[in-house]
Amino acid sequence: MPYSANHKAKSRERILKSAIELFSRQGFEKVSIGQIMKLAKLTHGAFYAHFASKEALYHASVRETLESSRAARLVKGPLSVQHLTELVANCWNLQELERKHKPGPETVLFNEIGNQNAEVRTLFEASYLRMKKMLETRLIALGRLKKLPFEPDREVIAEKSRAILASLVGAVAIAKSLPGEQERQHILNAAQHNILQMLGVNDGGPEGRPGRARRAAQ
Questions:
Q1: Is 85 within 8 Å of 145 (Cβ atoms)?
Q2: What are 10-54's pLDDT values in tens digits?
Q3: DSSP code for 207
Q4: Which residues contact 200 (CB under 8 A, 6 or more apart)?
Q5: What b/e string do you get for 66-83 counting C-beta neighbours within 10 Å, with b at 16 or more?
């Protein structure tokens, strides 16, 4: 007796949910189809009824992540420097990155640095551009509201966004690879301080003290 369309849809959803969890925690190369199907509580053979390859599943998982990430929802929040720093600090929550959670495009950047797989590189670029556009939109709006100490010139904003992403992704990538919690926190705190300086904001901030990286990583 063939499975119903509803049953197939639910099986696909379970596979996708398991893939998002594993890929966001470990990256493309370290996750196998077998691990995904085990987490989904489905047989290995059922995988190919829904996806042609691991690359196809990864593509679907990243697309889902980009569309439903917490970071994407955060960018629609209040227009304030404090809110922007909260968005950035969310990306530093290393313990959350290592537990079950709703990942964002930043997890692709953290996990796939240097990956040579053509499909993964394409998705890495998409995640980078999504994060960069998100930051640019927020900075332009804050600049027009005179909440930043520089004019909302598009070239300046684009350069600031690149620098923020470079500092953010680099700091998290290094911190995730270090065993010592103290040095991890030093790196994250230094990166947050650097980003606030890029925005022309003191650690105390003009709108209340933003969350420190040490709290974000607790």
A1: no
A2: 999 999 999 988 887 788 999 999 999 999 999 988 999 999 999
A3: T
A4: 148, 149, 150
A5: beebbbbebbeeeebbbb
**What is the distance between the alpha carbons of residues 100 and 90, in angstroms, rounded to a whole number?**
15
Two tokens, residue 87: 């968005």
Residue 76 main-chain phi, psi, to 5 deg: -90, 0
**Is the sign of the CA dihedral 167, 170, 172, 178 positive or negative?**
negative
Q: Which long-range contacts (CB under 8 A, 24 or more apart) does 76-81 make?
A: 79/138, 79/141, 79/142, 79/145, 79/147, 80/142, 80/147, 80/207, 81/142, 81/147, 81/148, 81/199, 81/201, 81/205, 81/206, 81/207, 81/210
Q: Please give the distance of CA 210 from its chain centroid, rounded to a whole number.
A: 20
